[in-house]
Amino acid sequence: MTVRQPAAARVWSSLRRAALAGFGIAALSIAAAPGAAWAQETIKIGVPLPLSGGYAMAGKDILNGAQLAADDINRRGGVLGKKIELVQEDDECDADKAAQAAQTLVGKGVVAVAGGYCSSAALPELRVFHGAGLAYVMDASTNPELTEKGWDNAFRTIGRDDEQGPFAAKLMKEVLHAKSVAVVNDNTTYSKGLAENAVQALKQQGIEVVYDDALTPGQMDYADVAKQVAALKPDVVYYTGYYPEAALLARDFHQLKLRVKYFMGGDGTTQPTLIKTAGSAANGMICTTAPLPAFLTGAKARRFVDAYKKAYGVEPGPYSIYEYDAIAVTAKAIENANSTKPADIVAALHKISNFNGATGEIAFNERGDRSKAVYVAVIVKGGKFQTYRHLDRNGRWVASK
Q1: Residues in a beta bridge with 43
Q2: What's the mean pLDDT in 145-171?
Q3: Residue pLDDT, tens place only, 69-108
Q4: Is the pLDDT of residue 34 over 60?
C-alpha cells in the first residue's frame, strides 16, 4: 500500500511526466518534488533487468537474487522501520527499452536502483538515473564506460572488462600456453569492450591475434563463423558475447568436427542455459568470470546458495549473488544515511567500506567500482561448471577447489 500523495505532489508528478514526454531523458535533470519519493510506507528499490527476450533466464536469476536479499532484510525488520519493496522493470537488454524502463522506475518513486545485466542497456539506464539523482548499483554490467563518466551515482558489485580481459590473456599465455588466439564478439557494448581489452592484453603478452571480428546475435547457427575461425588454426578461440550464441558456436565446432584446442568464453557465457543448449559440445569450455556462487567459500555465500536452491529448486546463476549484494549494500547505505533521500543514499554508498557481502568484502573506489574485484576461470565438465584456475595472493596460478 502506498500513501496517496498530497495535491501539490500530484501536480508536480503530472508536470514532470509531461516534461519527460516532451523532452526525453534530458528532462530527468529536474529534481523530484521534496518528500514525494520518500514519504512512502515502503522503501522502493528499482530493479531493471531483462525479463523477456533471449536473456530472460539471466534476468530471472538476477531477480531471484534481489528477492532473496529483500526477504532477508525484511525478516530482520526492514530498514528505518520500513520494508524493502522491489520494483522490477523489463529492459529486454535493449537500449531504447532500457531508457523507457528507467523512466518508469523514476516515475514509480524508487529511491535507488540495483540491477542490470547487459551493458548496452545499463548505459542508457544510467543516464536516466543520473539525471534523477538516483544511485545505480550494478550487479553484472562490466563495461568500463559505466563508471568512467565521472557520475557520482554509478556503482557496481562486480569487476570491469579491463580487468577481465588481461586476466583472460594471462590465463591463455601462462596456463594454456597459447601462441595464437581468435577473438569473437557479438557487437554489443559488453562484448566489444571485453574483446578490445582482451585483444590489447594478448598483444602485450606477445600472443598473435589471428581473428578479431563479430558474429550477428540471434541466428540459428554459426557454422560459417566456426569454419572461418577454425581454418586459422588458433590455439584458443575466445568468445566475449553472451551464452545463447556461445552455446550454438560450441555446438557448431563439435558437429562440424572442427578442431579447436581450447574454446573459451567471458563471464557472459556462464549461465547454466549454455550447457543445456550445447549439451556435450560444451564439455571442456573454459570461461573467465567473477567467482560463481557455488564456488564462493564464505558462510554468507553458502547460506545464499542453500536459500536459493530451497526457494527456486535450482542452482543460482552467476549474477544472482552479485545482485543479492547490490540490494544489501544499497539497504546498508540507506541505514547509514538514516534517510531515503536519493542524494543521501548516493553519498552513503561512497562511504561504504568493509561491507561483509555474500561475495566477500565490498567497498567502492572514487569511481564507484568495486575496490577488490576478483576473476577466476571455470571449466565445463560432466555437464556443469567446475572450478579450474585462479590466481593466489602472490599472483601464481593454482588449481581451484
Answers
A1: 84
A2: 97
A3: 999 999 999 999 999 999 999 999 999 999 999 999 999 9
A4: no
Segment holding 38, helix H or strand E? none
DSSP class per residue in 186-213: -SSHHHHHHHHHHHHHHHHTT-EEEEEE
Query: Distance between CA 293 and CA 358 in Å, rounded?
Result: 9
Burial 77-94 (b: 16+ CB within 10 A, else e): ebbeebebbbbbbbbbbb
Q: Are 99 and 124 in contact (CB under 8 A)?
A: yes
The pLDDT of 167-172, averaged and rounded, is: 98
Amino acid, single-letter form, for residue 94: D
**Average pLDDT over the chain, rounded to whole?**
91
Q: Please identify which residue in the block is written with the cell numbers 574454446.
A: 263
Q: In what order do the strands lie in the sheet with 236-239?
A: 208-214, 180-185, 236-239, 262-265, 286-289, 376-381, 384-391, 397-399
Task: Tell me the three state secondary structure of residue 81.
Answer: coil
DSSP letter (8 states) at residue 370: B
Alpha-carbon distance values, 279 to 166, 227, 241, 252 (Å): 29, 20, 19, 12
Residue 201 near residue 266 (C-beta atoms within 8 A): no
CA 28 to chain CA centroid, nearest Å: 24
Name which residue leads in pLDDT, 27 or 277. 277
Mean of the pLDDT values across residues 183-187?
A: 98
The packing angle between helices 342-350 and 320-337, to 10°, is 110
34 contact partners, CB below 8 Å, separation of at least 6: none
